[in-house]
Amino acid sequence: MQSKAKKILIVEDEPKIVEVVEAYLNNSGYETAIAYDGLLAMKRFEEIHPDLVILDLMLPHLSGEEVCQRIRRTSRVPIIMLTAKVEEDDKVEGLNMGADDYITKPFSTRELIARVNSLLRRSDEGISPLFHKMSWNQEDLVIDLERHIFKKAGAIVNLTPNESKILCALVKFPQKIFTREELIQIAFGLDFDGFDRTVDSHIKNLRSKIETDSSNPDYILTVRGIGYQFGGKS
Ligand code: CA
Would residue 1 count as lying in a domain? Predict the structure, then answer.
């Protein structure tokens, strides 16, 4: 027997996007509910208790930001933001509002589904992806996502966008062992067709920036035969 279908709430005011996203989600075995504006989104959310929310940023009546904040008062349901904004700052802002992931329009439906699957898998595992500022090993490593600041032993460390994406993914899911493929998807998106070993060179650079001893790392641990896992102690 099939397990109960997960319910996904699509909050989007553009009918064409709703149509495509709904069709793909249904094809992938998900149940869907639709809200075309922010107020309706809150109503639907309370009615159906979805397993995941796909939330457009620009909405009538109540913005996506506001909807996200209201949902977060009571729920840790995974939220994927859809937006036309492309600036990295906005991306960080969206994640700070409490969204778990962010997709910029125009997006590929395949990529959206992949992110939906991955967030649902993580929420099944009980891993909470929410955080703003965190520190490990007695403030040896500090990450302030709100201001996008990384510090090692009190000094600011400059990370490339790919390094920062990889590090943030690792720290957000400390129990998870990431494969190279997953880190590639996080850093470069799904359509990147480079070699797995590209990740290794990013890891090497990251370690040189945040580890006290790169050959004996505290934070980015190699899990032999699988990939990488975060090892910081909070
Ligand atoms: Ca919109």
Answer: no
What is the distance in A from the centroid of ligand 1 to the CA of 36? 9
Q: Are residues 81 and 107 in the same domain?
A: yes
Ion ligand 1, residue ranges at CB < 5 A:
13, 56, 58
Over residues 85-97, the pLDDT tens digits come to: 555 555 555 565 6
Mean pLDDT of 118-130: 67
162 with 217, same domain: the answer is yes
Last-in-domain residue among 102, 124, 146: 124
223 alpha carbon to ligand 1 midpoint, in Å? Answer: 42
Q: How many domains does the chain have?
A: 2
Which CB contacts under 8 angstroms, 24+ apart, belong to 157-161?
157/209, 157/210, 158/209, 159/206, 159/209, 160/202, 160/205, 161/88
Co-location of 74 and 181 in the same domain = no
Question: And the tokens for 195?
Answer: 């070699």
Q: Calculate how far, in angstroms, residue 160's C-alpha sits from the geometric centre of ligand 1.
A: 31
Same domain as 113, residue 16 = yes
Same-domain status, 116 and 137: no
Using only C-alpha atoms, the chain has a radius of gyration, in whole angstroms, of 18
C-alpha of residue 64 to centroid of ligand 1, in Å: 9
pLDDT band, residue 37 (cuts 50/70/90): very high
Domain span at residue 47 reads 7-124
Residue 59 Cα to ligand 1 midpoint, Å, equals 5
H-only helix segments in 144-218: 161-172, 180-188, 197-210
Query: Ligand 1 centre from 37 Cα, in Å?
Result: 9
